[in-house]
From TrEMBL:
Origin species: Furfurilactobacillus rossiae DSM 15814
Domain of life: Bacteria
Pfam families: Beta-lactamase
Keywords on record: Hydrolase
Protein name in UniProt: Beta-lactamase family protein
GO MF annotations in UniProt: hydrolase activity
Domain Beta-lactamase-related, residue spans: 8-312
Keyword field contains Transport: no
InterPro entries: Beta-lactam-related, Beta-lactam/transpept-like, Diverse_Enzym_Activities
Taxonomic lineage of the native organism: Bacteria, Bacillati, Bacillota, Bacilli, Lactobacillales
Length: 335
């Protein structure tokens, strides 16, 4: 396979500049894969080297790997449509305009301040989320938020009568043979995230809403190894008609916003290919996870880091990300 020399050099900058403790990444080119694990699992309170097979808190990659995939299975089965209204499945919801498409494309404009949000018990947090207002930009622009995919999780629970994380495990992780992926990781084999006043977060979800909502959270909470995420990426890029059909996965590289011009697909974000001939599916996670998947060229990149260690105030990583996108997509287009 091609060496993706420039992409690997940009990733190496993360380690050389001490932006993250370590990296696990996979470059996928059709049936060929290059996987590398470098650096440390943690710096504080003591140094620990990164080992192959360790589990990362995927954060918002949970949205696309798990929740979106499970929802689209129901669409394929004819049990619901992305243009169905949220209130059909979640009667506590108050605005009849909001569709599943709005939630999946982050165009619902649901937002608002919840006092003491991170201290609320799960039942009260759910009630508060379902009382949030719909803003003036409804279906006019995209505003990324966890709320949409939390609500999609509630839709899945209404259909299956099971917790969303159990649904993801049974209908996505097991069929794809993502054997180490889990919502209940072994802390000793998990890459630590933030060092807080309460101690090191390790083997527990970093996102506070997900920590409160637990098994009922569809926006975050999944832990997985590089091997798991490579398995997912290779399936996504393939022409296999299992878990989701090829036709559905092809939709995920097209603009699916209500106006079809806001640059988001169902669950997935979109990047333009470097030659501007097509769109590429991608997503990021707060903890430092990135996946870029080009179904046209059958090439992909999975990058797993714990950029929130020792502190989430790591703006250098956020500033670095666009250089990775540009470099990888340039190498894809360059052949």
């Amino acid at each position: 396979m091609r060496d993706y020399r420039q992409t690997q050099r940009v990733i190496q900058d993360l380690l050389d500049d001490q932006i993250v403790p370590g990296v696990s990444y996979a470059l996928i080119d059709g049936s060929e894969v290059c996987q590398k694990v470098k650096g440390d699992a943690q710096w504080w309170p003591e140094h620990e080297p990164l080992k192959t097979g360790m589990l990362y808190d995927l954060a918002s990659l949970t949205k696309v790997v798990g929740t979106t995939t499970a929802l689209l299975q129901l669409v394929e089965q004819g049990q619901l449509s992305v243009d169905d209204k949220l209130s059909q499945f979640v009667p506590e919801w108050h605005d009849a305009r909001v569709s599943l498409r709005d939630l999946l494309t982050h165009t619902s404009a649901i937002a608002g301040y919840i006092p003491h949000r991170n201290e609320l018990p799960a039942k009260q947090l759910k009630q508060a989320l379902l009382q949030l207002p719909v803003g003036d930009t409804f279906e006019q622009r995209d505003h990324y938020t966890d709320i949409g995919l939390i609500f999609i999780g509630y839709v899945l629970e209404a259909v299956y009568q099971q917790p969303v994380q159990q649904i993801i495990n049974e209908h996505v992780l097991k069929p794809l043979k993502m054997s180490a992926a889990t919502f209940t990781p072994d802390s000793s084999n998990s890459v630590p995230t933030e060092l807080t006043q309460q101690g090191l977060i390790r083997g527990r979800v970093h996102d506070p809403k997900a920590a409160i909502l637990g098994k009922h959270c569809g926006s975050a909470g999944l832990f997985a190894s590089l091997a798991d995420m490579t398995t997912f990426a290779q399936w996504f890029l393939s022409d296999r008609d299992d878990v989701l059909t090829v036709k559905t996965r092809d939709l995920l590289r097209t603009d699916q916003t209500p106006t079809h011009d806001l640059g988001r697909s169902l669950g997935w974000n979109l990047l333009a290919s470097s030659d501007n001939t097509h769109l590429v599916s991608f997503h990021t996670g707060f903890t430092g996870t990135i996946i870029i998947l080009d179904r046209v060229t059958k090439q992909g990149l999975v990058l797993l880091t714990n950029r929130v260690h020792p502190s989430q105030k790591n703006h250098r990583f956020i500033e670095w990300r666009p250089s990775l996108y540009r470099t990888f997509l340039d190498e894809v287009a360059g052949g």
